[in-house]
Task: structure prediction
Amino acid sequence: MNKRIAFLGLGAMGAPMARRVLAAGHPLTVWNRSPDRAAPLGAAGALVADTPADAVRDAHVVVTMLADPAAVRDVVAAFAPVLRPGTHVVDTSTIGPYALRDIADLLPEGVTLIDAPVMGSVDRAAAGELTLLVGGDADPVLPVLDLFGAVTRTGPMGSAAALKIVLINAVVTGVAVIAEAMALADAMGLPDTTVRAAMVNSPLAGIAGRAFAQGVHYPIRLAAKDVALAVATTAMPLALAAHERLTAFSRDSERDLGHLVELVRESASLKTASHSAP
Ligand SMILES: NC(=O)c1ccc[n+]([C@@H]2O[C@H](COP(=O)([O-])OP(=O)(O)OC[C@H]3O[C@@H](n4cnc5c(N)ncnc54)[C@H](OP(=O)(O)O)[C@@H]3O)[C@@H](O)[C@H]2O)c1
Result:
């Protein structure tokens, strides 16, 4: 447990994951663009670096958990020049395979890149119960990945980044479908509890469970980013429609994805009311 880990990106997901590294006894250096988010990790025993390059200088394993492709590209470009051969860079963000390839091109010879995007939200990040989809030569970093949750190997580097987009696009689009199903139930005068109970006993159970989940925080803005990564790849009219719904409620973009259900129901009920007005 004497290998120094660098963890960059201490947002809703990154902060609890970095805490698990510290709790396991690894020497840890952290960096976050907004320093106030790094301070609690510093108080808990991590070194807080001023720059991405300072964070990774002495690290054996570098973990990034950042918002989107642009953020990962900027941060990796800032630290890549100081990486030593033999360092392993693990990106756990959701950025898709094309951005991952660009990032691989930024890394010096002898540095390996592993894509390890995660399924599960902040609750499972804190408990070390995420599902990690892992691509590339991950054997040397498995003890670190194990701290975050269960590892599913997907194949070569980039395969996990791709699979994550496949899964999360279907989940987000599915939540949009549940939102419209609830709006339809409202319009037909069905009680909320009856509809939810029926969903749990139907093939919709899993996705309805996500739509109504509590204690999770996957903001609508990140869900829109993930669906955008999918629709940029191939023709996906259903996902495009879901993306339109996600971006229509910009004032609520920090709310969890599940809040989409209430937003869609509210907007549908306004239309139902105006149709039935005399
Ligand atoms: N939330 C979830 O339930 C969930 C679940 C699975 C996967 N994910 C994925 O995990 C990643 C992180 O999600 P999150 O919920 O932790 O997001 P978040 O709370 O918004 O945190 C985003 C992190 O990225 C940093 N960042 C954003 N733009 C940057 C830039 N241009 N340069 C440097 N740093 C930048 C932020 O720094 P500041 O603090 O300075 O803003 C913050 O540390 C995303 O790719 C997301 O899609 C999220």
